[in-house]
Amino acid sequence: MTDLVTRTLRPEELRTANALFRAALHAKPISDEEWPAAERAYQPERNLGVFDSGTGELLGTARSTDADLTVPGGAAVPLAAVTGVGVRADRTRRGVLTELMRAQFDELAGRGVTAATLYATEGAIYGRFGYGVATLSRSLTVRKARARFRPEVPSGGECELLDLDTALERLPGIYADLPRQPGMMARSSYWWRSMWIALRQASEPVVTVVHHGPRGADGFAQYRVVGRQPGFSGTMRLLGLHAGNAEALAGLWRFLLGVDLVDEITAEGRPLGEPVELLFTDPRACEVTGTGDETWLRLVDVPAALAARAWEGEPLVVEVTDPVLEHNTGRFRVGRDGVERTRSSPQLRLGVDALAMTYLGAWRPSALAQVGRAQLAGEGIAERADRLFGTRVAPWCGTFF
């Protein structure tokens, strides 16, 4: 078996790592003209590579950018947004990914990072490393011809169009000022650079619209129109929409549905609780075309994560098992008064991956217990656990990386 060496990538190795990752996604390498901009999206000292110790060849890579995660109760914890994970096709299933994940976890733990999150290209990969589905989203199609707003829906404020360069300057501040629900994350300068690169490379023009309320900008959306032929309308693909209040949500949707030469609007990755269909006299104007996993979460520091979020109801003793990061394994008394390690008998037992699924409120402990992912001990514990982990709104990230 090949001996593996894992280390932080040097700046001159980043392009090779980028090409390896893109090859893993069956994409061609980026061009010489594109690379200088793409390189600026890499945060220094956050890029790992696994090498063949004999040949020195790069076999796998993963990277992350610093962020923070909003948890139930409104606190934010240090977060690593993990992306760029790839293994050479001729070196898969030889321990390269396992080595990458372990090295990254050790690095994150050493820096005091509470959690890591990612978007999974395949659903069967990351659970064995302690990741769990922590936020869910849905896909929508809104038929313009049927979408008539109910009379009581807010009229919204003024909407302003921005070009991409201006959007890159202004959207970071607007996003940072918006209210954040559990699951949302801060967007670093590296994320905004990556977004700008991706939108620049889109085959159709990308439009940015900002909504202005009484106190200034309070929401924005980005979209492109595809499939339009001369004499025919096309489909608007909503790339993102963030609204700080009901007026901004309604105002942005009024603007989008008022764009000419568009028959329908498709949107992916939208919050489960976003009331788009309730805007219209005919709720079937908005069709839910799919629901699925959004982000996967890995709790790197379980005690810190448990202490950071708010809890409701009676306290419980929760036993967590983590075969990779052993410092996370233990029993914790969890309640609204705080979190502490304990030797008391556990009332809820689950692995660190299942804990990640319940942590932001996406899944109830009782649901995980029904499929053997958690164990509940004692009468009434299921109801108490569900109340303890419950949240007012379903968690949602809304930031693809």
From TrEMBL:
Lineage top rank: taxon: Bacteria
Entry keywords, A to Z: Acyltransferase, Transferase
Pfam families: Acetyltransf_17 (PF17668), Acetyltransf_9 (PF13527), SCP2_2 (PF13530)
BP-aspect Gene Ontology terms: aminoglycoside antibiotic catabolic process
Annotated catalytic residues: 126 (proton donor), 401 (proton acceptor)
Keyword rRNA processing in record: no
Chain residues that bind acetyl-CoA: 85-87, 93-98, 121-122
GO MF annotation, one: aminoglycoside N-acetyltransferase activity
Classification via Gene3D superfamilies: 3.40.630.30, SCP2 sterol-binding domain
Domain named N-acetyltransferase: residues: 4-154
Keyword Protein transport applies: no
NCBIfam families tied to this protein: PRK01346.1-4
Assembly with partners or alone: Homohexamer; trimer of dimers.
Family the UniProt entry places it in: Belongs to the acetyltransferase Eis family.
Protein name according to UniProt: Putative acetyltransferase
UniProt source species: Saccharomonospora marina XMU15
